Amino acid sequence: MSGREEGLVIRVLGAAYDVQGPDGVVRCVLRGRLRRQAEGPQRPVIGDRVEFERVTPREGAIVAILPRRTALVRREPLDPSKAHVIAANLDQIVAVFSAIPEPDLFQIDRYLAVAEANGLSAILCINKMDLVQDPESFRSLFAEYEALGYPVLYTSAITRAGLDALRERLQGKITAFIGPSGVGKSSLLNALQPGLALRIGSINPRTGMGRHTTTRSELIPFDGGYLADTPGLRDIGVWGIRPEDLAACFPEMRPYIGRCEFSDCLHLEEPGCAIRRAVARGRISRRRYESYRRILIDQQAMRSS
């Protein structure tokens, strides 16, 4: 057999890769230069578009990784230069939070910053709405996110409220679900498609966290698109974002970047800061600005410890 074909990496199995080709899945290994660089940035990840050559009808070798449109990156907290791509060519992230207890808005800001840092669209999903007594008043808590252009969906796996809207957002897209443990991601996915999230295990009685039983990375087909399932999503955080890049992860701050008195302004206490001036004038939410400050100060403290 000869000739290169193009496909999508849908599963990583140690040194083997399942590639969705034109006529089905082909189990592939790496060839030549790619095999020698298997631990570097040239290691294929789920979502990669690759070129492969067949050895048999269902076996082959990956010979090239095509340019990545987006990359979901996990960086080392103390050394952002050490980065590991855990998924490529994602279209969006769905950040899931439980309505009860009331979501931590700082946590939401952190997850949205992760999406922005990785060049991904973000959808905020508030789940377990069947537990909310006054839905209309509750939704006002998230108005500022809608004003910033983030879609906010309100869902319930029990009543199936909001599931059609969520399904519509997922169709034809490659999506990663992220969010704290216990917010109902598994139940939500199973409500969308029974059996979809069976890899989510039971609750750990010591920590109260879900036992995520995923040991491999894969893309799960869903309504013309895929859902990304990888252990690395548990470790996604903002700690690896460079301090000078953090403000750009807050859309409302972008118009003011480059307008400060000092070119290396981090928008904390520096004089002549355009972002702090915009906060004082009510053009940037003070609460969101405090999230920015908290992330940045936490990053600095971690690096100096």
Secondary structure: elements and pairs:
Elements lengths: L3 E10 L2 E6 L2 E7 L2 H4 L12 E8 L2 E7 L5 E6 L2 E10 L3 E7 L6 H13 L3 E7 L7 H5 L3 H5 L4 E3 L8 H8 L3 E5 L6 H8 L7 E4 L6 E3 L4 E6 L2 E5 L13 H4 L27 H7 L5 H19 L1
Parallel strand pairs: 3-5, 8-9, 8-11, 9-10, 11-15
Antiparallel strand pairs: 1-2, 1-4, 1-14, 2-3, 4-5, 6-7, 12-13, 14-15
Walk me through the structure.
The protein has 305 residues and is an alpha/beta fold. It contains nine helices and 15 strands. The protein has helices at residues 33-36, 105-117, 135-139, 143-147, 163-170, 185-192, 243-246, 274-280, 286-304, and strands at 4-13, 16-21, 24-30, 49-56, 59-65, 71-76, 79-88, 92-98, 121-127, 152-154, 174-178, 200-203, 210-212, 217-222, 225-229. Strands 1-2-3-5-4 form a five-stranded mixed beta barrel. The protein has a two-stranded antiparallel ribbon with strand order 6-7. The chain has a two-stranded antiparallel ribbon with strand order 12-13. Strand 6 and strand 7 (79-88) form a beta hairpin. The longest helix is centred in the C-terminal third of the chain and has 19 residues, at 286-304. The protein is globular and about 65 Å long. The chain starts with a strand and ends with a helix. The model is unreliable at 200-214 (pLDDT under 50).
What is the strand arrangement across the widest sheet? 1-2-3-5-4
Compute the separation of the termini in Å: 56 Å
Main structural class: alpha/beta
Strand content: 25-35%
Kindly state the mean pLDDT as a whole number? 87
Tally of strands: 15
Shape: globular
Helix content: 10-25%
Task: Give the topology string: H per helix, E per strand.
Answer: EEEHEEEEEHEHHEHEHEEEEHHH
Count of individual helical segments: 9
Radius of gyration: 21 Å
Largest pleated sheet: 5 strands, mixed, barrel
Low-pLDDT runs: 200-214
